Amino acid sequence: MDEAPGKKRMKEPVQKAWIWWVLAALVVFNAPWYLPEGMIEPYIFGIPAWVLLVLFLSVLLSAFLHWVARSQWDILEDEEEAAFAEERRRKAEEAGR
What we know:
It is a single chain. By secondary structure, the chain is mainly α. The chain has one domain (14-35, 42-96). Helices cover 60% and strands 4% of the residues. It has helices at residues 17-30, 49-72, 77-96, and strands at 43-44, 47-48. The protein starts with 16 loop residues before the first helix and ends with a helix. The relative contact order is 0.12. It comes from Nesterenkonia sedimenti. Keywords: Membrane, Transmembrane, Transmembrane helix.
């Protein structure tokens, strides 16, 4: 696939299999189906351990998605906005003539 010189290539995390595997694992293990039925104990600071586990995995899922969006996905937003502003400026100049 040939690209114009000086043009950045957009990164797509959807094409990285390891991201899907980590995401699937975090979603699957976020529901405590793998713990014994009716498990209430042990308590940690008065909260059942499974609740803390679900909260921890939820925060981990959010952090992972944030990291993927910030570091693995280059959406070229600044360049697109600059190009849009330039196009708008050019149209305004043409309309003013």
